[in-house]
Amino acid sequence: MPTSRREFLRAGTATAAAVLAAQAAPPASAATVIGMQFERVNPRLGLIGTGGRGTALLENFLAADVQVNALCDIVPDKAKHAQSLVTQAGQKAPELYTDGDHAFENLVARADLDLVVIATPWRWHVPMAVAALRQGKHVATEVPAATTIEECWQLVDTSEKTRRHCVMLENCCYGENETLVLGMVRAGLFGDLLYGEAAYIHDLREELFSNQGEGLWRRTVHTERDGNLYPTHGLGPVANYMGINRGDRFDYLVSMSTPARGLAEYRAAHIPPGDAKWKERYIDGDMNTSLIKTANGLTINLQHDVSNPHPYDRLNTIAGTKGVFKDYPPRIYFDGQPGGENYGSIEPYKAQYENPLWKKQGEIARKLGGHGGMDFIECYRLTECMRQGLAPDLDVYDAAAWSAPGPLSRESIAQGSAPVKFPDFTRGKWKERKGSPIASIEI
């Protein structure tokens, strides 16, 4: 019997919807890794990427007494410098892997590694993480963990199948103010939460146009995408305040960008005619603003701007029915507090709500520096979770959810700022979990 045009179109629409649904939420292929504890081990580390960020992480892991057995970088001199840092710390010289883009495949295949740390350009995070997971290694990757929704699912699925953790190294979740405020949220001081604000506003123009380091690759992304290129630094702490993936989850997002102006103006003022950079066309809007709605009805204002003069700012705001905290500079206001409608200091709250990690390790963290000490606290805590056989504070579901605003913002902008849905990377298990374990650490 011939098929009518209406039936054909209906069938085609149903097929397309099924394909989109499959892309959005692959069927569970293995048990969740939520709450899965590390096997007790004094971790042996392999590091991929020994540039500026990689060596900073290396120094912090060394300060946490982690054994480093292997280093990888496509620039041999950088790998050798990192190797010297390890020997200066009193350890045996780690083996180097510097033979091309895929030298990391030999590193992750080693039998004497428990944790692989990835500090490379963004496009390599997922291929390297997946390779390490499949070789039976736990992974800690720099941010963002992934740049597409498909990559987010790839990390989740591979972590579940291999029974290995994939942790995103979101250091801002371990900042002194962030952990303090998280404890205050957990204690109920802000009442019922209503909204948050998060951002990565950082004047990176000089770094983006550098002929070394991140200037060799990060500027290129501005010629390829229009959206929030770097969402997790601001978003991670606010997600922890709100219990995202732990009683709530991101539901949908709308996004819009300003015109792209800043990088072109900086190039005109600083780059000589004839330089290859003049062939580039920057399309990423200078200020991207995305609004996120959670399943429980909360809202988040998420921003990104690295192309214009502006003091560093992550906004780091959380507000509820009893008060509000705002950062940069840190200030707090609770209903009925002395001083009228003026913000007060957060200092009086530190005696009661300072996080145990900072009470125990704050002195060494501040001496090491590293974004105010948060880098060391992050590395120390991950190491201790492995040594004590605990589940990590941040898991692959956090890595996926916090990275997802990158691709979703691009999708929303392409559709005229239409709402786009977040996948549920936990497959419904967010309803069964409690808040961030960072707030309940006992030392």
How do the strands line up in the largest sheet?
A: 13-12-11-7-10-9-8-14
- Please provide the ordered H/E string of secondary-structure elements: HEHEHEHEHEHEHEHHHEHEEEEEHHHHHE
Structure classification: alpha/beta
Count the E strands: 14
Provide a count of the helices.
16
Report the portion of residues in β strands: 15-25%
The parts where pLDDT drops under 50 for at least 5 residues are: 1-23
Largest sheet: 8 strands, mixed
User: What is the oligomer described by this structure?
Assistant: single chain
What is the approximate shape? Answer: globular
Q: Could you tell me how far the N terminus lies from the C terminus, measured between alpha carbons in angstroms?
A: 73 Å
Helical content class: 25-40%
Averaging pLDDT over every residue, what do you get? Answer: 94
Rg over C-alpha atoms, rounded to the nearest angstrom: 22 Å
Structure description:
- The protein has 443 residues and is an alpha/beta fold.
- It has 16 helices and 14 strands.
- The protein has an eight-stranded mixed beta sheet with strand order 13-12-11-7-10-9-8-14. The chain has a six-stranded parallel beta sheet with strand order 3-2-1-4-5-6, sandwiched between helices.
- A hairpin with a 4-residue loop joins strand 12 (323-326) and strand 13.
- The protein is globular and about 60 Å long.
- Residues 1-23 have low confidence and may be disordered.
